Amino acid sequence: MQIYNTLTRRKEAFTPIEPGRVRMYVCGMTVYDYCHLGHARVMVAFDVITRYLRYRGYDVTYVRNVTDIDDKILRRADENGETISSLTERMIAAMHEDEARLSVLPPDQEPRATRHIDDIIAMIETLITKGYAYAADNGDVYYRVRKFEGYGKLNNRDLDEMRSGARVEVDEHKEDPLDFVLWKAAKPGEASWPSPWGEGRPGWHIECSAMSRCCLGDTFDIHGGGPDLTFPHHENEIAQSEAANGKPFVNTWMHAGAVRVNHEKMSKSLGNFFTIREVLEHHDPEVVRYLLVASHYRSAINYAPESLADARKSLERFYNSLEGLSLEGPVLKDVAVKADEVDGRFEARFVAAMDDDFNTPEALSVLFDLARELNRAKKESPEQAPTLAAELRRLGAVLGLLQQDPATFLKAGASELPLSEEEIQERIDARAAAKKAKDFAAADAIRDELAALGIILKDSREGTTWVFERPEG
Known about the structure:
Blueprint: E1 2-5, E2 10-13, E3 21-26, H1 37-55, E4 59-64, H2 71-80, H3 84-101, H4 117-129, E5 133-135, E6 141-143, H5 159-164, E7 180-185, E8 200-202, H6 204-216, E9 220-225, H7 230-245, E10 250-255, E11 259-261, E12 264-265, H8 276-280, H9 285-294, E13 301-303, H10 305-322, H11 345-355, H12 360-380, H13 385-398, H14 406-416, H15 421-436, H16 440-452, E14 455-460, E15 463-468
Parallel strand pairs: 3-4, 3-9, 9-10, 11-13
Antiparallel strand pairs: 1-2, 5-6, 6-7, 7-8, 11-12, 14-15
C-alpha cells in the first residue's frame, strides 16, 4: 500500500508501527456553527480511508477531536445569548446528524479539548521545563519557534522567510513575532480554568498535541486534516509534540483537497457558502457522498449543479444494475468476507486502485466494469447475477456507497423531476426548431421555462443536454 505523505511530498510504502494495527488522528471541527461542505470533504475522505484499512484487515483506532473552546465559540455564544456548553452540545449533535446522513461512521474516539485541560497543562509545563516555552507577564504562555530546529519541515518553509513575510500582530509580550500561544490568559467574564500561570484556556494548537498523545501515544501512524491545516496548525503540532515527547510525532501526514463552488473558493463573502444540512435539503445524501468520493481525496472538488447531476446519473447506473435482484440488507458488517463464488478479478483491481494512495476514481471505474458484467449476466447468465450483485454491494460498501434499496433510490430520483424525460426532450426539440427559425425569443422562453423548474440546459457542439437542480425553497 502506497500513501502520499505531505511531510516528504511523495508516495511511500505504508508500514504501521505495530503490525496489523493502525493508529490515526484527524483534526475535527471547531463547534461554533453547522458543518459546511469543506468539513464534509474531510469527514468522507477519512471515513473511506478508515473503511478501506479495515477492509484490508487492519485493526484501526480512528480518533477525531472536537475543539469545544475557542475565540469563535466564545463570540458566537455571546451573540446568541447562550452558554458555551449549550452552543457546543447543540453543534456537536448537529455534526453527528450530518455525518450519519452522509453514511460517515463515527470515530472510535472523539476527545474534546475541555475534557483534556489537565493533559494540556502538563504538556505546556514540560515544554517550559525543556526551554521550548515561556510564560509572559500577561499570563499567556508562548512557544519558542526558533528553539525547535525542524520548524517548517511539513510546509517546506524557511524561518527567516516566514519572519520577513509574517502578518503577525505586534505583541510586546512575545520574544519573537513567530512565537505562538500555548495558553491564553482569561479576560474578565470569559470561560477559564486554573493553571500555574493563572486563569485561562488552551491555545488551539496545543489541544491536538495533548489529545493525540493521550489517545494514541507519543508516535502514531497517520495524522490527517483539511487542506488549510498544514500551516500553521499541523506545523505547530509537530513542534510541540516532538519537543515535549522527544520522539517523532507522526509517520504519515495526509491532507484532503479543498471544495470549490462553481470553480470558485467557497466563501461567505461570495455568497457560495453552504452547510451540509443546506445541501442535503435539496440533494440525496448518497449523491453528495458520491460526488465527494468520485474525486481523489487530495484533489479539489467542484460543487455545482452539473457535477451533482452527474453524480446522480452514476449512482442510477449502479442501482439500475442492482434493481430486480434479491438483495439482503446492508453488507458493511461483512465487508471483509469475500463471496466464495465470485472470482477475484474485480476485487484484485479494486484493491490495486485503493492501495495506490486510496485512488477512489480508479476504484469506481472497477465498480462500473462490475456493473456492466452484472448487466450482461442478468441477460445471459441469470444464475450468476445475485453473486455479482453481492460483490458490487460489498465493494461499494468500502466506499460507503450502494447500500440503499435500488427501487427506492431510483423512484426517489424519478419523482423529483417536474416533467418526464420525454416531455423535457420535446421542449428541447421545440427550442432547437425555434432557434433554427431564428425565433430566439421563443427559444429563450423555453429555456427560461425549464430553468424555473430546475432543468438547466447545456448547449455544446454535440447538442443540448440537461441537468436537474431541485429548486430552492
